[in-house]
Amino acid sequence: MSQPEGQHNELSNLLNESRTFPPSEEFAAQANASAELYEKADADREAFWAEQASQLHWETEWDQVLDWSGAPFAKWFVGGRLNVAYNCVDRHVEAGNGDRVAIHWEGEPGDSRRITYAELQREVCRTANALASLGVGAGDRVAIYLPMLPEAVFAMLACARLGAMHSVVFGGFSAEALRSRVNDAQAKVVITSDGQYRRGKALPLKANVDEAVKETPSVEHVIVVRRTGGEVSWDDSRDKWWHDVVEGKPETHTPEAFDSEHPLFILYTSGTTGKPKGILHTSGGYLTQAAYTHRTVFDLKPESDVYWCTADIGWVTGHTYIVYGPLANGATQVIYEGTPNTPHEGRHWEVVAKYGVTIYYTAPTTIRTFMKWGAEIPARYDLSSLRVLGSVGEPINPEAWIWYRKHIGGDRTPIVDTWWQTETGAIMISPLPGVTSTKPGSAQRPLPGISAKVVNEAGEQVPHGSGGLLVLDKPWPSMLRGIWGDDDRYRETYWSKFADLGYYFAGDGAKYDDDGDIWLLGRVDDVMNVSGHRISTTEVESALVSHPNVAEAAVVGASDPTTGQGIVAFVILRGGVDDAASGEAALKELREHVSREIGPIAKPRQIMVVPELPKTRSGKIMRRLLRDVAENREIGDVTTLADSSVMDLISKGLKSSS
Ligand code: 6R9
Hints:
This protein is α/β, with parallel strands linked by helices. 29% of the residues lie in helices and 22% in strands.
């Protein structure tokens, strides 16, 4: 039953959250998804996926939907042949939609570009011709180290067109991170730009490539897009301007069809510890699930929707829900180059109003940042075009979910909380808009065609109302096909925990509620053990954020001589909360609040007020670094932080209570 927010006086958290939001009749009547989809997929999974795959253009039809005989290495649509770029570009032009806008690109300084599908086709062909002229062919690896520019999309699709694999490296990563990824993949070409705009400043980028390629013997060419006009050093034998190699190349290129299992890309996971893993994805199954989920989970109507995913292209969300899913579906989308507060904190809402964005997909961390900035900011803009909101990347706190729905979605839009991973390639667990009665904080049900379970350590499904580990018990089309160059690590990381059962272990904790809906509880390595009780960092964070004074919270388990682990919380207070809120009494009140919400066992041992939290570029809190602070250790490797100065800020400005 839906409850208007006003009637829900009690502040909620993950444990006692019970609000539900059924779809409106109006939305349900026009939705792409229907309840029958679940039944259809259950009745015959392979037939269901074959039907999804047949929405793509295949040069040669497959003769077998799934070959799992080489498990855990799957083959989907065996014998089928297709060209991924043709599917994302040319076929829309051939269908008469060449004039449809593919990309509304918005630069951080306010410049913009409008690229139709016909233009996209010409750009991708020219780029493919340029890469081919440099000797790039099927099976080669191309590293793409670019900011959010249209050229990043052209380059990815040009690789796909040629059957070359791209390895996109986030433009915020260091030279060292780039070097290790280029070497692991043995990339032949690196595509970069002179610089990038970040928070209103033009920062150098090529300089990192210069540094990295000193020790990457596989690299033959560096292609440089001119973006900021900043000065760059130049090696004539290696470096080429994008405009010199791409402009003047023919605007047509005949795509070759590749095997359904032909590799499409490698993407390194942010890897909080150890060597980054090169997650390998292939063509037919990946594109099938990317397109299906994008169409179904976001209710995409390609003729009328304007879709915007705020992720970076260097993250899997950018691959599947900026490049492959939306373009395979012929969508019109916004791509924004910059940060959400440049030049002001209303930038996203200005962009929504400017382009009439209808579907908006972002991360909980961004939503909580908007909460911190205040609801009066989005209130200044016309957001009435929005009709579906999405969330991805971490569990969303019910408070953030409710705020998102109310202040961005006008208390009207369905919210899809989408659980998936770099490894899964596409969305796996999510509500379906127009079908599911949504619950704030729950990703709810595996999508039609997907099977997931919450199990105990023995692999047995736990009863409703209990928690355990999330597993994927049946193969799915967009699953990873391995870790680049390391089959053993692939088997060990994902398939060894439940080897006898053949389950993929996702590394996430989860629980079923009484209705059997799934609630993700964060990585199992983020589960704390306090006096023998398992407590999720997410649950405590959720309780903290449900307090009116708290904008954002991160919780770690710090080793404790008596209880095993003690809970240490880092909190950012809401703007406008006066200084007294960080005083001893106020922090005591916060600890009591958690105790009230979850139980005395969850009461933080210590709460520290901080100005920022350390996050990776994909918005994940790096608890490892906070654990270092909590345990008074020297702070570890900060190279994967979006902003490495955050740790200095935290160490300097600590106010704590214990
Ligand atoms: C797409 C992406 C994967 C990990 C995953 C989980 C967390 C992602 C989530 C979520 C709860 C959601 N995660 N979406 N947790 N609810 N809706 O984020 O890929 O960067 O590989 O991260 O992110 O812990 O295991 P990736």
